[in-house]
Design goal:
By secondary structure, the chain is α+β, with helices and mostly antiparallel strands. The protein contains 22 helices and 15 strands. It has a five-stranded antiparallel beta sheet with strand order 5-4-6-3-7, covered by helices on one side. A hairpin with a 2-residue loop joins β9 and β10. α8 packs antiparallel against α20.
Length: 558
């Protein structure tokens, strides 16, 4: 009996099947995740550890079913890219404002530089184009572009050995793709003798000197045409310039209910945008900037409410009519890290944090109406997820005819999902269908997807990994270093010569290389948001360009 059981176990582990493939896939995911958590001098492999454990398992001859891994690889890539696009959507177009345009131009230069160096490597060496494409993706630590390359190769009928070659090149170039960016940050700091404390103070001062998007204001009403008018009339007249919160009358706060009549000497308190204050002065009276307040004295109160009521999600403030039924007003909306000045036509969406000012005794009633139940947001929005992925697959399959290419390019699984998710994330809903995804669900999709993808790439590419290194593959490592190091160093030096804050440069090059471990290192340089903000500004455009250019490269060189 014992011998039969041992024979069965041995047969299971040494025979190719879907079950054994799933077993080794889970083994790679588990051990790789553990490996990625190990930290050496502040540097961790992160999720890339899964790639290397997959390679190691395959190197020991694990029997795997390639077709199963192909499906799991593409499925993981789809989940990963879709969740990234959905989270990037709300900020994608706004990222080009202010210094975002300059930072994105630097990021485009880094992307174009890596593409150009990879093309030179292909033309000047005997390295296969598929391997160069994988190397280009690994050198910039961009997993979706590797997925796009492998999908193009499948569509063009490339042999499995050619496709696995891209994974090997990716894995060879990946380690310095992480370390090279960190090394560049250190070199720029040393070369320009950067004082990080000074850079941090400059960044903090720049934030303090720049006016925030929204301002608390107090308007002393001097326009005689407004005396005797109702608050409801004032709201409509100033809808695009001001959100009312309360009135100060003879030093006492009064609820800004619609039926309340404006009197001479009243001070209207509310929220406005900096560029609208001049119009307010012309229409209403003397405007003074006010400090933010956490508590309003007297009978009025202020509360932040999480919008979780699905029945009213997608409806405008005017349609919901809270201000008509309660002595309360919505004064701010926080959505995906953005502050929104609410107007009567502004819609409330699931996951919004809504600031309401009104009489203390009715705030709990308003809270109940808007939901404020985190449990409602825990439920995954399954219908919209699959509809979005379905649409992304169709979009990614549409041919894009580019002059000079022998075959049409396609956005593919990676590009199609990314673009449609950005658009859906930006819009938020279509009709009654919301595309909101809770941060927890988004993070799970992202982590689960990328782990599946990297584990599959490692298992599919690992069997010949060591052999490739010994038979000239070490040259690939040097080429990968060139793709990583040259563009970020040149752009980093130029940016510094143009007086860009060093902390922003660190975030810029980490984002342009889509390199989370490098961002972790950059964040450790100084306890401010400059690095993360620059990373977030350039990341969306960079991700899109890398996916598209990877496909163009493989079509140009096949």
């Amino acid at each position: 009996m014992t011998d039969d059981l041992m024979d069965y176990i041995l047969h299971f582990f040494t025979t190719q099947s879907i079950a054994s493939t799933m077993l080794y896939l889970c083994l790679a995911a588990f051990t790789g995740s553990m490996l990625g958590k190990l930290e050496i001098k502040g540097i961790r492999l992160g999720v890339a550890g899964v790639l290397f454990t997959g390679i190691l398992i395959a190197q020991f001859g694990a029997p795997i079913d390639a077709h199963t891994l192909y499906f799991m690889r593409d499925f993981g890539l789809t989940l990963f890219v879709y969740s990234i696009g959905l989270s990037m959507g709300p900020r994608f177009f706004s990222s080009f404002r202010k210094d975002g345009l300059l930072l994105n131009l630097f990021a485009v230069a880094i992307v174009a530089g890596g593409f150009g160096i990879a093309f030179l490597i292909y033309r000047l060496t005997d390295m296969p184009s598929a391997a160069v494409a994988g190397l280009m993706s690994g050198a910039v630590t961009n997993t979706p572009s590797l997925g796009a390359v492998q999908q193009v190769l499948v569509e063009q009928g490339a042999a499995p050995a050619v496709i696995s070659e891209t994974g090997m090149a990716y894995a060879i170039a990946y380690p310095f793709g992480i370390l090279g960016v960190i090394f560049t940050m250190m070199l720029i700091r040393l070369f320009f003798r950067v004082n990080t404390q000074s850079e941090m103070k400059k960044y903090t001062r720049s934030l303090e000197s720049s006016e925030p998007a929204l301002q608390n204001v107090e308007i002393t009403v001097v326009n005689p045409d407004l005396f005797g008018k109702s608050i409801g009339h004032i709201k409509k007249m100033l809808d695009n310039e001001l959100t009312l919160s309360r009135i100060i009358r003879q030093g006492e706060p009064v609820s800004a209910a619609d039926e309340e009549i404006i009197r001479q000497g009243d001070i209207i308190c509310g929220v406005s945008a900096q560029d609208k204050i001049e119009k307010l002065e012309l229409k209403a009276g003397i405007v003074a900037l006010a400090k933010s307040v956490e508590n309003i004295p007297g009978p009025l109160g202020m509360i932040n409410i999480l919008m979780t009521n699905q029945r009213i999600a997608g409806k405008s403030i005017q349609q919901i009519g809270i201000y008509r039924r309660y002595p309360a007003n919505v004064t701010r909306i926080y959505r995906s890290g953005m502050k929104i000045l609410p107007t009567l036509q502004t819609t409330l969406e699931l996951g919004d944090t809504i600031r309401v000012v009104g009489k203390q005794e009715i705030l709990n009633d308003v809270k109940k109406e808007l939901g404020d139940s985190i449990n409602e947001l825990i439920k995954p929005n399954i219908i919209s997820i699959f509809l979005g992925i379905f649409t992304g697959i169709i979009l990614g399959s549409i041919p894009i005819f580019i002059p000079g290419l022998p075959a049409p390019a396609r956005l593919g699984l990676a590009g199609g999902q990314l673009l449609i998710a950005i658009l859906l994330g930006r819009r938020g809903r279509i009709g009654k269908l919301s595309f909101y995804m809770t941060p927890g669900a988004s993070l799970f999709m992202r982590e689960f997807g990328i782990i599946l993808f990297l584990a599959c790439v490692g298992l599919l590419s690992g069997a010949k990994f060591v052999e490739t290194i010994l038979n000239g593959g070490w040259h690939w490592m040097l080429y990968g270093i060139a793709v990583t190091f040259i563009p970020v160093l040149i752009v980093g030096i130029i940016a510094r010569l143009m007086k860009v804050n060093y902390l922003k440069i660190c975030g810029l090059i980490a984002g342009a290389m889509t390199d989370p471990p490098a961002l972790e290192f950059a964040n450790g340089i100084a306890p401010v948001q400059a690095q993360a903000a620059a990373y977030a500004i350039v990341y969306p455009l960079t991700m899109f360009l890398r996916v598209l250019l990877a496909q163009i490269f493989i079509l140009m060189t096949m």
